[in-house]
Each structure stands twice: as structure tokens, then as C-alpha cells.
Specification:
This protein is of the alpha+beta class. The chain is built from two helices and eight strands; from the N terminus they run H-E-E-E-E-E-H-E-E-E. The chain starts with a helix and ends with a strand.
Length: 150
């Protein structure tokens, strides 16, 4: 009788041991998973820096952009020549959601006397898949410029 009772107690102990161990690991695992998820949460892209056109039809003529904390400046580039195309506001993304677009307000103090500058009051820029794109119109032709960070 004592042997049966001892065997029953031992069997109950063995059945509850894995449950206790799993419960302990589950709480530690949940804490570790939460920390890992927080570390892996997507961050907004940093768009500041130098950008260069990747879809130009010419190796010698292309656009470049410089983005600071609150401005974007776009230039036409050709051999021995740089001309202002756009100077305006920049709004950094707050989330990692793509596509991200912002309407840049023209800084007319800079563009008013620039011969090749856009006369538009605003210009929409879009960031997606590592590229910034926007429309450019010149001499009756409109094209989409695509820039990638240097």
C-alpha cells in the first residue's frame, strides 16, 4: 500500500514538473520576446544626406539632392555646371511606413533668380524602397526623377 501511495505521489510530481518548468520558461520567453520585438520595431528612415539620380538618360547630366533636418535642395548637374532646381522645406518621417510623401514649400528667396529652378509653389517628394522620387517638368516634358542615397 505504501509503495502504491509513493508511486502515485511520484507520478503526480513527475506530471507537474514539466508544467512548472514550462510556466517558468514561458514567462522568461515572453519577456525576452517583448524585448526582441521592441528592438526589432521598424525605425523611420533617415533621409538626411546626399542623394544622386539613378534614372538619368545621360551619364553627364543628372540631379543631386541634399537633405538636412528641415530643408531639401535639388541641383541640376552637368560637366563643369551646377544649377539650382529646387530649394524647399523637408519634413522627416515619423514612422517606418512606406511610401512616405511630403509636400515641400518652395524657398523662393533661393529659387527666384535661379534660371533653371522650378517655379512651383510646392513639390511632392515620395520615399519608397530606398529611393526618393518626384516629378520634373522642363521645356514641355515631364519626367519622374529617382534618387538614391550616396
Amino acid at each position: 500500500m505504501k509503495k502504491r501511495m509513493l508511486a502515485l505521489v511520484f507520478a503526480c510530481f513527475m506530471l507537474t514538473l514539466p508544467l512548472t518548468a514550462c510556466g517558468g520558461n514561458a514567462s522568461n520567453s515572453t519577456g525576452a520576446d517583448a524585448a526582441a520585438q521592441q528592438e526589432e520595431a521598424p525605425q523611420p528612415p533617415d533621409l538626411t544626406g546626399e542623394w544622386v539620380q539613378v534614372n538619368s538618360d545621360s551619364e553627364d547630366s543628372y540631379q543631386t539632392a541634399t537633405i538636412t533636418a528641415d530643408t531639401i535642395t535639388v541641383n541640376w548637374n552637368a560637366p563643369d555646371t551646377t544649377a539650382l532646381y529646387w530649394a524647399g522645406s523637408f519634413e522627416a518621417p515619423n514612422t517606418a511606413d512606406e511610401p512616405y510623401s511630403w509636400d515641400s514649400a518652395n524657398d523662393t528667396e533661393q529659387t527666384a533668380n535661379a534660371l533653371l529652378a522650378s517655379p512651383d509653389e510646392t513639390k511632392t517628394f515620395t520615399y519608397e524602397d530606398g529611393q526618393i522620387s518626384y516629378s520634373v517638368s522642363a521645356m514641355g516634358v515631364t519626367t519622374t526623377v529617382k534618387l538614391e542615397k550616396k
